[in-house]
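Issue 218. Parser rejects a valid record. Input:
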Amino acid sequence: NGLKKTWSCVEMSRLSEEKQRQVKEAIKDSIQKAERERKILHEKASKDAESLWEKSKPADPTHPYLIKKKVSPLDLRQNRRDGKDVLLVPLRDLDGKLWSLQFIYPDGKKLFLKDGRSTGFMHTLGDTTPTRIIAGGFSTGASIHETTGHCVHIAFNCQNLKTVAESIRKAHPDTDLVIASDDDWKTEGNPGLTKGADAARSVKAKLAIPTWPEKQ
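Output the parser choked on:
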């Protein structure tokens, strides 16, 4: 739920100042160690992603997921995984480094590469255009790109919209940004629209919301 708190099994108020200092140092050391270990895992995942990407073939336009969503296999690749033909969607930073992969199965199930980084990373469709659009998932982004011709950045989920938007805004302060938000009106709290609106406010972007016939 996004909350962060520091917890210790030791009741600090009962310790001397020296003991409190030692406990705080131990906590700090543990956090730094965990961060170092995460970086090692992330770099390994990045290399694994590069290796798998290079071994994979361009995605087949007749892949069941692409047919169902009525989109082209824009810059995707395809490989066998768990005995099935799976689409590979790259997660890159603004410099183009590949950090992880998203796997899309024929039935629409989506998984990320183990230990791969995802926060702040994206898959970009098309060349640079004056207007850039940030969308949550591949099929939504692909539909928008093929319809408008605008450069589209796939953020992979609504929680990542704001981080990606801030990254794009910092790198391209004068670009016209549009957040293509989901409208999860049937879900409590409407996370798609809530996160999309928050991302748009944070970078002063436009907000595009889909139309649902059922809501009319």
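Fixed in the parser; the record now loads. Helices lie at 17-55, 64-69, 138-148, 161-171, 191-203.
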